[in-house]
Amino acid sequence: MAEHASISPVATEQGQKAPTQGTHLVADESDADSAIGDDDDDSIRQYRVENGRTYHSYKDGQYAYPNDEAEANRLDLQHHLYNLTLDGKLFLAPIKKDSQNVLDVGTGTGLWAIEFADEHPSAVVIGTDLSPIQPTFLPANVTFLVDDAKEPWVFKERFDFIHTRQLHCAVEEKKLMKQALRNLKPGGWLEMQETSTPIACDDGTMTPDHAVHKWTHFMLEASKRIGQSLDNPPKYAEWMQGVGFVNVQHVVYKWPCNPWPKDKKHKTLGLWTLVNAQDGVEGFTMAMFTRVLGWQPEEVQSFLVDVRKDLKNKSIHSYVTVNIVLGQRPE
């Protein structure tokens, strides 16, 4: 839960600012117990149905999380969680107020793109995603496209700002960074907002015997098997520098897994993180465990009963690490 001002002042020669873990979380002991044709448009909306959830049909199987109404609602809730974390800000990059062209990669329900467009009426905002789950009634300066960020980018314009959030095994991050660099205007910014796995704990209250500990390591194992490891985000700053970005910064926040911290803001973040996790844990897990690890759906559901219990347990002081990494294309 680092505040933006708590970025370490120590910088490398390339200008990367070292990340900080921020304020140490203190437990609240008082409650410790407690762009396509019509035919293509029709086909991409014929979603894959699997274990009671729907998944994108365009580039079927590339992204392991659902795209149904339950997941859309969770994505909107997650957007609120990011807003709480950043004190109402949509991003940290020092972009120009009159930015003209903005790209939101993996836009999901499009809420970030819509809010950015409302706040920046001079900007033209494009949101891309594998699923057309965005609303129909939009600000005039927003367009949504069904697109695969892993394919070569063919945008006619270059962008002042490119934003990504929670792409979770959907992209090859280094390739995305290279494509972003090529598609930014000189001086433009890329900002990637991403949680990393495994879930962490600083005081030993989460042990290897806990289901939530096992779950987070199973998720990491599955992601590594498909070559898109969920522990990559802490490496983003180094990777951005490696492909040519300058003024790279890495800001670290923490989301408590439930309202266990004593601090009021952290407790609120914990409450929203718990709701987000309880609503999303089945969607996060089912395809990764069944497609990649070979579990049966019934095994997954049984296992998640104990995972949910651990997520609610205030005596387990676990948290999710949030990485916000930004870099600038050289002038």
From TrEMBL:
Region of interest (Disordered), ranges: 1-42
GO molecular function: methyltransferase activity
Segments of skewed composition (Polar residues): 9-23
Transferase found in the keyword field: yes
Record GO biological process: methylation
Biased composition (Acidic residues): 28-42
Pfam families: Methyltransf_23 (PF13489)
Keywords: Methyltransferase, Transferase
Domain of life: Eukaryota
Protein name according to UniProt: S-adenosyl-L-methionine-dependent methyltransferase
Species whose genome carries this gene: Hyaloscypha bicolor E
Upper lineage: Eukaryota, Fungi, Dikarya, Ascomycota, Pezizomycotina
